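Hi there. Long-time user, first ticket. I'm pasting a complex I've been working with (about 416 residues overall). I'd like to know whether the download I got is complete or cut off, because the file seemed smaller than I expected. Thanks.
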Amino acid sequence: MGFDFECVRVATATARTSMETRLRLVNEDELDEYARAVTRGFGHHFDANIFESYRAAISSGRALAAFDGSDIVGTVLSYSLELYVPGGMLPATLLDSVTVQPTHRRQGILTKMTAWSMKDFHERGEVLSCLGASESVIYGRFGYGPATLQVDFTLERPHTKFSHFPEVGGKLRFVEKPEASSLFPGITHRACSERPGYLKGSEKLWDLYFADPEPYRESASALFMVVYEEDGRPEGYVTYRVREGRVIVHELMPATREAHAALWRYCFGIDLMHTTHAPKRPLDDPLPWMLADPRRLRQSVRDDLWLRLVDVREALARRTYSSEGRLVLEISDAFCPWNEGRYVLEGGPDGADCRPTSSEPDLVLSAGDLAAGYLGAISFTNLCIAGRAEERRKGALEVADAMFRSSQAPWWPNDF
Ligand SMILES: CC(C)(COP(=O)(O)OP(=O)(O)OC[C@H]1O[C@@H](n2cnc3c(N)ncnc32)[C@H](O)[C@@H]1OP(=O)(O)O)[C@@H](O)C(=O)NCCC(=O)NCCS
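Hi, the file is complete. Here it is re-exported in full:
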């Protein structure tokens, strides 16, 4: 790896400050202070009870910090994972714990840390980078685009009657952490292994999930965990919290149609609860079409996983496409200039080829907007109408939409 991790000195932007910020990866003995900075950055006080699981998670990633003198004033934690894109898994980094201390905001520190990270990812051959954004205004400037959408469901108990429901022969039972940690990753993998947007989480991230840190609970209960089995075979699970008569579904992960129905019916039938709230569902969850009165299901859609094509050419070449097509794309990318230029993409269900070209472009767009269409969540036609892409050859949008379309709605199932 040609990149010097030891120390990158940057004079933080501008006339706004004359402070000099040093960026580097932290050492083991700085993790305590790192965790303190992250929790403070999100507006909490550090909770020593969660430190052990958090420390393990941090040390399985790469913890970049910005220092003002000896103080940590910025954090970006990156995990090397794999993201499912049509055709297979691609190396990707998940960014997490992105903070700048309130004392140091709007001085360009996040911008510097992101530029450092992009160069690092590129050197490491990590083709994609992704994250869940706390606010949708932050990451577009760095070339991330909203690549998966989520729908949040809310349903009051009197309206939970089903009109369509499969034959369900399995059983539900509660599980505790040790058993859950042996069952859930495999169920998730079965359920999502061909779902664009699925990130294969590491063991340490699952450990952090099961540690269920108190600050993540938003005043609700600790997680309840229920598995659905058929003939002793685990086919799905749900994790949820309760708060003031509401069931708050954390994850509902069915690997079969029967598990899907059984788990929803379970959530709706928990005694003493009047409402089920299930954020972060995939857009193609068939629940509405099983309910007798689907209009009662309140639905709210928003962006979820933000994606960055760290290496545009590799990202386009190392996947398959829904239909055969050829496109010349002109990509602008001020933040990662190595991506700028024209590419000819020829791809289909069996694979693809992508190489630089000097031909006239069919579509002109930024790397961030390409990322928004990359998994198929947002069509190129829509991006064009929104003013985010330009069609230079008539018919190119139709070709692009047909190629990038996905049969399963792109979805980021876990929070990692
Ligand atoms: C989001 C956060 C990391 C930004 O750090 P920062 O160092 O202040 O960001 P920068 O100074 O590099 O900002 C670069 C640009 O983005 C804009 N920006 C950054 N965060 C923004 C926000 N939350 N809302 C609106 N604009 C924002 C800045 O105004 C600046 O724009 P400009 O170049 O036009 O002046 C910081 O505000 C933070 O820690 N927030 C709380 C924790 C959080 O939400 N983290 C993100 C988790 S996904």
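A couple of notes from our side: The chain has three domains: 8-126, 150-302, 311-404. The pocket of coenzyme A is lined by residues 41-42, 98-100, 105-111, 131, 133-135, 137-138, 141 (CB under 6 Å).
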